[in-house]
Design goal:
The protein is α/β, with parallel strands linked by helices. The protein has one domain (4-126): Rossmann fold. The protein is 42% helix and 19% strand. Strands 3-2-1-4-5 form a five-stranded parallel sheet, sandwiched between helices. Helix 1 links the parallel strand 1 and strand 2. The protein is globular and about 50 Å long. It starts with a strand and ends with a helix. Bound molecules: adenosine-5'-diphosphate. Adenosine-5'-diphosphate is lined by residues 9-11, 15, 17-18, 21, 88-89, 91, 95, 120, 124, 127-130.
């Protein structure tokens, strides 16, 4: 059986913590779909198209990885896409409760789909898209925590904001 993992998240934007999970996950799965799961009523810093474009550029030419987006029920997406595993990353204890609830509800919704967790690499313990945005928004350097292209896009976004020319 082909092992296909769906790695869902907001990826607003992709960070080195996400990349670590993707790279390590690819050792266990034949294929991976990175799924930008979005809420149509909420806008992020980057549009879904911008997030897709950044992930594509960062991942490069890797035929076993596909990037997609969805605002629907995750287990429905996984089933339709022919996946059998939901891949998630775990950082601090604070991730655990939410992830535990999500894994249980998803299992209740579809018993054939398992959620698999990878523990964060210690370097990325504090790396979250939200903290990265918070720091970058105030001019703090997030170099080394995100790929260079993401760093440049963040600088572009926030320097426009700061000069008032959105
Ligand atoms: P964030 O929590 O950073 O806003 P996402 O919603 O995009 O990110 O997260 C998608 C998945 O990636 C979640 O399972 C999340 O726990 C995991 N993840 C995010 N950042 C890291 C990290 N630094 N190390 C390990 N896993 C991470």
């Amino acid at each position: 059986m082909e092992r296909v993992a769906v790695y869902p998240g907001s990826f607003d934007p992709i960070t080195n913590g996400h990349l670590d999970i993707i790279r390590r996950g690819m050792r266990f799965f034949d294929r991976m779909i990175i799924l930008i799961a979005y809420n149509p009523n909420k806008s992020g810093l980057f549009t879904v198209e911008e997030r897709t474009d950044l992930i594509k550029k960062v991942i490069g030419d890797e035929p076993r990885i596909r990037i997609d987006s969805s605002s629907g029920l995750l287990v429905d997406y996984v089933k339709k896409a022919g996946g059998n595993v939901i891949l998630r990353g775990l950082r601090a204890v604070s991730d655990f409760e939410y992830e535990f609830q999500m894994a249980l509800i998803n299992r209740r919704l579809d018993r054939d789909i398992e959620t698999v967790f990878l523990m964060t690499g210690y370097k990325w313990f504090f790396t979250s898209s939200n903290l990265i945005k918070e720091a970058a928004c105030h001019g703090g350097s997030v170099r080394g925590l995100v790929p260079d292209i993401v760093l440049h896009r963040l600088e572009e976004k926030y320097s426009k904001d700061r000069s008032g020319t959105k």
